[in-house]
Amino acid sequence: xxxxxxxxxxxxxxxxxxxxxxxxxxxxxxxxxxxxxxxxxxxxxxxxxxxxxxxxxxxxxxxxxxxxxxxxxxxxxxxxxxxxxxxxxxxxxxxxxxxxxxxxxxxxxxxxxxxxxxxxxxxxxxxxxxxxxxxxxxxxxxxxxxxxxxxxxxxxxxxxxxxxxxxxxxxxxxxxxxxxxxxxxxxxxxxxxxxxxxxxxxxxxxxxxxxxxxxxxxxxxxxxxxxxxxxxxxxxxxxxxxxxxxxxxxxxxxxxxxxxxxxxxxxxxxxxxxxxxxxxxxxxxxxxxxxxxxxxxxxxxxxxxxxxxxxxxxxxxxxx
Length: 320
Prior knowledge:
Layout lengths: L8 H6 L6 H15 L12 H10 L5 H14 L3 H5 L3 H8 L6 H17 L7 H5 L6 H12 L8 H12 L10 H10 L9 H16 L18 H4 L20 H12 L5 E2 H6 L8 H13 L4 E3 L2 E3 L7
Antiparallel strand pairs: 1-3, 2-3
């Protein structure tokens, strides 16, 4: 028979006690009402399409880089129909250096599906959103919530980190969105019976902003946090992250991502170029020839470039 070891009274006493969610809701939502950044996709006049574009662009990309690209995108293609009809080369050019350019083509594919399936109007239903190309659980929930006021559970990296610190007392939530974190996020949502979900949607936006501006990964601003005195992590003495909690940053220098980005920068100039000239002229002296060729081939396979013989260009530039 295996003996079960129970924690002693001292260990139980040291475990941080989570605050009452209602107290945190009130403080964080009130803080957001005063401190929220004036971002164009948050304004009342922003269309659901504008919200969808922002959510795709903001994936793994900071706001400061997204703002000018979002504004240019909505100026050129204010509706899904306009985006769906645009040349792919123009789509990739306007995407510029936001990174992960396949997102641009997936966004255009989503626009085409919106036109074909929904009469050109972004659907409000999260299931319909998830059925669009390139739209996952988070993006569908965020668009439903922020564009239509539907109180879906929205969880990004910033929200996970705020939840982890305030309610579970750990420094960082870790790389993986766990089942326990999913349950916590669901349980923390304000009740929707009284106001149709307005407070729940405000909680999503406010917690995301708190994680982005105050409860940051490396330099949390606890001195000005609206819930510092309620935070379980602060109560526990702000313990450092364990190895399991840490998120590993993605390398850039010397990677295929860097080489692919350099190739795309040349192709976005808009003119067809000889493959050998393009690859030889990349400002990456450390990149070997086989890596350059492999990255060009991968761009062609991904539909981000096209090649005819030894000539390379963005999709559609070479014509029929």
